[in-house]
Write a structure and sequence with these properties.
The structure holds 2 protein chains of 2 kinds. By secondary structure, chain A is of the alpha/beta class. Chain A is built from 8 helices and 10 strands. In chain B, the strands form 5 sheets. Chain B has a 7-stranded antiparallel beta sheet, with no helix packed on it. Chain B has a 6-stranded mixed beta sheet with strand order 2-3-1-4-5-6, sandwiched between helices. Classes of the chains: A alpha/beta, B alpha/beta.
């Protein structure tokens, strides 16, 4: 008799089961790929779930044009290695209006991400979309189902969620409606890091500390990733050894000062740290229960 | 309250992170549920477990302290419950209304906690949380003792097959850690537990608020010689381990076919183990083969075990697809199409006996009809009461039948075995709203299903229809009372008779005088009325006849059910459309007047809904066509087929 399954083996088996259910029960699934560590794990699980076939769905990156350069570099390579088609979508209206994180605050996220995502899903007619959200990230996510049902206009109704029992997922829906599926719902941040370490999954180098040009604003350390970054009068980028715990639009994503250049060192810092993961993101601090509100409107 | 030492991280993290990671890769995973009413301190206990296992970060703690002062119920102290109650509406109301999943880990295990609501109206949420739990922590307030809620939660946990039950007598700090209080509650619970079939449970005196007997034994309860809660959570047997001892079962999720040389069957092993060379049987076909490989991305396995997601290849080219179960050849599960099951109703709309629902069990999805419940269980008193239907949060036992054989096992595998969740638990799905309306647990198949076989006859329905030189069909009239269904149906039959067609008109009122005279006009009876008429119409088409039916048949689901009973193209829906105002104005039988005055209940259009067809084969607008013109149009359609 082989040894007991470890928690990571069980989480992996559960995620694979979910990925396969969606492929078996929906018509046109897609995987939302944000190039972060959670996406990297989700993509890796997809490769495992359908091996020796390539995952039978495309990857979709809803691009805001404001991601870190290093993210764009990894994106194309990861898709190619998985043998998957990569779709990139940029909201044409946001592009036309020049929506950016410096001038438009939360409108930037609304237009590029929330609206962009809805447009991309509608454009291709996807009826199921995998997302890399985890329940441990944030309070409202702790209650979201693994199969999260969306109305034809992409709204989430937290009070009217389908019960999810055992390993049974109800993927039935009317025409025009869709499902967001979260295969790594039950993983924690530490699980993700341990799995990346164990499975040797490639992640964006920004997760590791390196000297980077940065400025400090409102308690966040921001990286000056390209010359679109608007410096305030008197503001001069300072080189700091930093890394990122989550990756998003670079002007909105706070770095932490760190010397951790290897994965074990990153995990070590994470375990010794005293702040939670999403604190590095400006988006959650807008208002109380902001994530729940964004989710109802269609944000992933 | 905040014990600063809680935040001292494992020394190994700083000293040797590689050694730490190595150690933590070998944790197992335990899922458990906490139950108890809001006041029993459930959320506080979970908050405490997160806090004590260092899962609360400083920013969360700062927010928690601020929230505690603003809306907390613990004065200036930290209100751990605020950590756990997620949705904004819940925070305002101060109650938990859904299932929230929480995560924490110790050196030995990772834990997933389902935090579920206590009130009776949230039975469905508790059942959801209990469905995946290896263990249940049942909280009792030491000051209040065993309450109705305690009994209900224990019953539900037992019903869902949870073998490890912890009775956590909470708020011991408020009763001065009095052993007599604890013993009294333990004994009272023991008597109740035995009465519902719980053979053993573990009582622990705790204080979630102060932290007694949570991670370490409390010096306040020297009289307690058992383990603290966390130690129990870390050592209890996990169901996934127990599942390995069972016979091999793999419900096939997906057929993996990247090229002509590879054909694999992907799924999660529900029970037992599997090795290359093992003899297997594919259910429900019963065909046998041998396992060739146990394929994974990380290489072939020498052995796959319960809980693993794998892809099997077989030595023979056998038919096998999603919904089939690959099982140990010598010990396969049964297949049947009639069962007795416990059903937990989860939808606002009540169960309608006779209506068709989708039933999903493992990877199988079939059409199922639920019969009138044998009884309903009062979850507060455990009494069995008679029931015609099941309403939201009701639990009952009923027979159900499926349109094809289902591969299954009894959910309850006995007191000493983990339940057969994957092949014994199912959900029911409404065919129109697609909502998950119920969860069920199979008890056993009815012997009837095994012994009543379909008798093949030598003269086929084609032969009978051929002798009459016609194509059988059902002209299914639907519409409001007084729309003109019977009038037009009668004209259609006369015209067909003149053309020497063999017909039979089944009229709603007439059928209720005989075959269906035991049925009334409740929604449930209307469904059964239509089901019987559908079966009769089907027999008549088997005999070769053109059947004409004239029933209000207000629900889409039942019309669709009859359509599904018949071969494609034989069900012709005729929607006789008229406005309610027009029908009411005609009121040939004086029924609308009676309904309006309240003498007649459940009258379609007045206090019972009519669901108009979206895509009927024939649509007759009675304001545009005379009955004779309408009849001609229907006859033309029928003969043009």
């Amino acid at each position: 008799m082989t040894a007991s399954l470890t928690h990571l083996q069980r989480l992996e088996a559960e995620s694979i089961h979910i990925l396969r259910e969606v492929v078996a029960e929906t018509e046109k699934p897609v995987m939302l790929y944000s190039i972060g560590k959670d996406s990297a794990v989700m993509l890796h699980l997809a490769r495992k779930a359908f091996y020796p076939s390539p995952p039978p769905f495309p990857l979709l990156h809803v691009d805001t044009t404001w991601k870190f350069k290093a993210m764009y570099d990894l994106r194309d390579r990861a898709a190619r290695e998985a043998g998957m088609e990569l779709l990139v979508y940029q909201n044409p209206e946001a592009r036309e209006k020049g929506i950016n994180p410096f001038d438009h605050g939360s409108l930037h996220t609304d237009m590029w991400k929330t609206e962009g995502l809805k447009q991309a899903l509608d454009l291709h007619g996807f009826d199921a979309a995998f997302g890399g959200a985890r329940r441990d990230e944030e309070k409202s996510r702790a209650k979201e189902r693994i199969f999260s049902f969306r109305s034809a206009n992409h709204r989430w109704d937290p009070k009217n969620q389908r019960p999810e029992l055992w390993r049974l997922y109800n993927a039935r829906k009317a025409k025009g409606e869709s499902i967001r599926v979260f295969p790594i719902s039950n993983w924690t941040e530490l699980d993700i890091w341990q799995y990346i370490h164990l499975e040797n999954i490639e992640i964006v180098p920004l997760y590791f500390a390196a000297p980077r040009p940065t400025v400090e604003r409102d308690g966040l350390i921001l990286m000056v990733d390209d010359d679109r970054f608007r410096l305030k009068p008197g503001e001069v980028p300072v080189e700091r050894s930093v890394r990122f715990r989550t990756l998003g639009c670079y002007p909105l994503t706070g770095a932490v000062e760190s010397e951790a250049t290897t994965l074990p060192e990153v995990i070590q810092e994470m375990l010794l740290t005293t702040t939670s993961e999403r604190q590095g993101r400006a988006i959650d601090h807008d208002q109380a229960a902001s994530m729940e509100k964004k989710k109802q409107e269609g944000y992933f | 309250m905040a014990n600063p030492s809680s935040y001292e991280a494992d020394a190994l993290i700083a000293e040797d992170i590689d050694a730490y990671l190595e150690r933590h890769q070998h944790k197992s995973l335990l899922r458990f549920i906490t139950c108890g009413s809001v006041d029993d301190g459930k959320s506080t206990l979970i908050g405490r477990l997160l806090y004590d296992s260092k899962m609360i970060f400083e920013d969360q703690l700062a927010a928690l302290e601020a929230d505690s002062k603003r809306v907390g119920t613990q004065g200036q102290n930290i209100d751990f419950a605020l950590l756990v109650d997620g949705l904004a509406a819940e925070r305002e109301q101060g109650i938990t209304i859904d299932v929230a999943y929480r995560f924490f880990a110790t050196d030995r295990r990772k834990f997933i906690v389902a935090d579920t609501p206590g009130h009776e109206q949230y039975t469905r949420n508790m059942v959801t949380g209990a469905s995946t739990a290896d263990l249940a922590v049942i909280l009792v307030d030491a000051r209040k003792g065993v309450l109705t809620q305690t009994r209900r939660h224990s019953y539900l946990c037992h019903l869902l097959g949870i073998r490890n039950i912890v009775l956590a007598v909470n708020k011991m700090d408020l009763v001065d850690y009095d052993q007599h209080v604890f013993d009294r509650i333990r004994l009272a619970y023991s008597a109740f537990a035995q009465s519902i079939g719980i053979t053993h449970f573990t009582p622990i005196p705790i204080s979630g608020f102060v932290g007694d007997n949570i991670t370490a034994k409390s010096d306040k309860t020297p009289w307690y010689d058992g383990a603290p809660l966390m130690e129990l959570l870390e050592t209890v047997e996990i169901d996934a381990e127990a599942d390995r001892a069972k016979a091999f079962r793999l419900p096939v999720q997906w057929v993996n076919r990247p090229n002509l040389d590879f054909r694999g069957f992907s799924g999660l092993i529900a029970g037992g183990t599997v090795k290359p060379g093992d003899a297997v049987r594919i259910l429900p076909s019963g065909k046998t083969s041998t396992v060739a490989r146990v394929v994974t991305f990380d290489g072939d396995l020498e052995q796959g075990v319960a809980g693993q997601s794998v892809t099997l290849t077989l030595a023979d080219e056998v038919d096998c697809s999603r919904g089939d179960v690959i099982a140990a050849a010598g010990d396969p599960p049964q297949a049947a199409d009639q069962f007795e099951a416990t059903i937990v109703w989860m939808a606002d709309e009540e169960m309608l006996p006779g209506r068709s629902y989708w039933l999903k069990l493992g990877t199988q999805t079939v059409t199922a009809n639920v019969q009138q419940p044998k009884y309903q269980v009062n979850v507060n008193t455990m009494e069995h009461t008679a029931a015609k239907t099941l309403e939201l949060n009701a639990i009952g036992v009923a027979n159900l039948s499926t349109d094809r054989p289902l591969v299954f096992e009894a959910y309850d595998a006995g007191a000493n075995a983990s339940p057969n969740r994957d092949l014994g638990g199912f959900i029911l799905i409404d065919k129109f709203t697609n909502a998950t309306v119920a969860a069920g647990m199979i008890h056993f198949s009815l012997r009837r299903a095994q012994n009543v076989h379909w008798q093949a006859t030598d003269i086929t329905r084609e032969a009978r229809a051929g002798a009459m030189r016609q194509k059988p069909a059902v002209l299914w009239f639907t519409g409001l009372s007084g729309a003109g269904k019977s009038t037009i149906a009668n004209l259609v039959e006369k015209k067909l008779a003149r053309m020497n067609r063999h017909t039979f008109l089944l009229d709603g009122d007439n059928v209720r005088h005989g075959l269906n005279r035991d049925l009334g006009f409740t929604d449930a009876d209307r469904v059964e009325n239509i089901r019987r008429v559908g079966e009769v119409a089907k027999l008549m088409t088997d005999a070769g006849l053109i059947v004409i039916t004239a029933f209000i048949s207000p629900f889409r689901a039942e019309r669709e059910m009859v359509r599904q009973m018949l071969p494609a193209g034989e069900f012709i829906e005729v929607f006789v459309n008229t406005t309610l105002a027009e029908a009411e104005k005609r009121d040939v039988k004086g029924l609308y007047a009676k309904a309006r005055s309240g003498q007649l209940k459940n009258f379609t259009g007045i206090d019972s809904p009519y669901e108009a067809p979206d895509d009927a084969e024939i649509r007759i607008d009675t304001t545009e066509l005379t009955p004779d013109e309408a009849a001609d149009r229907i006859v033309d359609y029928l003969l043009d087929r």
